TrEMBL record:
<dbReference type="InterPro" id="IPR036866">
    <property type="entry name" value="RibonucZ/Hydroxyglut_hydro"/>
</dbReference>
<protein>
    <submittedName>
        <fullName>MBL fold metallo-hydrolase</fullName>
    </submittedName>
</protein>
<dbReference type="Pfam" id="PF13483">
    <property type="entry name" value="Lactamase_B_3"/>
</dbReference>
Length: 259
């Protein structure tokens, strides 16, 4: 299993013989609803568009997960698996092979990779987006992805999971509360899912964030603090901090089968 982090929530997962692009934001700025005065993320240069993508996986319909300028540049014939809200975005852009996954539903890619949707982040009072459990069927390797730290108790049924990708940093807004749940949520999921490896997402990487919203958001936590929490709780889960753009192989061991 190989991963490349492009910063923010954007990942390339190579599992088995498949290349899965997750929540890609690779080009142009990140702006919500064209309100750049409220929030804007930008890089000094675009990320290269990866080649030979087998699947695009979208967890949410908001721009930081379903980024329209990036999705416009990708081949619209690539298969897409998406939350119902994200599926609306790619349908409007003209993608031809879109599978919408509601919570509890499963998609199988070429009889090699199984993707199951679980409840993820709440967006507003009525909408709950997706988290995903990705499994290579031949080896049994598993990866769980939830980019805002909202972990459904239903995921526990899949434990142990080899790799977890979730935030380590808490982000809150006055009056509104948590936007992203970091350390305590990540610690709980490490206890319940017993991953070999855990990686942070939703951090900026090489991105510069601007706007009124960034002046109001309060952040706390770090990978170093999270490592300390794991040690205090006698958890052997390994923390890996990726460098944006670098492809790396995950150090995974074959787990013993339960008797």
């Amino acid at each position: 299993m190989f991963l490349t982090w492009f910063d923010s929530n954007s990942w390339l997962l190579e599992i088995g013989e498949k290349r899965i692009l997750i929540d890609p934001w690779l080009v142009d700025s990140l702006i919500f609803s064209n309100l750049d005065w409220l929030f804007k993320g930008w890089r000094s240069q675009n990320r290269p568009i990866p080649e030979n993508i087998d699947l695009i996986l979208l967890s949410q319909g908001l721009e930081d997960h379903s980024h329209p300028p990036t999705l416009k540049q990708l081949d619209h014939n690539i298969k897409v698996v998406a939350s119902p809200n994200a599926a609306k975005v790619v349908h409007q852009l003209g993608y031809t092979q879109v599978t919408t996954l509601a919570h509890g539903e499963t998609f199988t890619l070429d009889n090699q990779i199984e993707i199951k949707a679980f409840p993820g982040s709440p967006i507003g009072p009525t909408l709950v987006e997706n988290s995903y459990l990705i499994k290579e069927l031949e080896s049994g390797l598993t990866l769980y992805y939830e980019p805002h730290g909202y972990h459904s108790p239903q995921v526990k049924q899949a434990a142990p999971i080899d790799v977890v990708v979730t935030p380590f940093i808490d982000m809150t807004l006055p009056l509104l509360g948590s936007i992203i749940k970091g350390q305590n949520s990540a610690l709980d999921v490490a206890k319940s899912l017993q991953p070999q490896v855990i990686l942070p997402t939703a951090a900026g990487g090489d991105v510069i964030f601007e706007g009124l919203l960034m002046k109001l958001i309060q952040t706390k936590g770090s990978a170093a603090e999270f490592r300390s929490l794991l040690e205090k709780n006698n958890l052997s889960t390994r923390v890996i901090e990726p460098t944006p753009g670098d492809r790396f192989q995950l150090p995974l061991e074959k787990r013993a089968l339960a008797i």
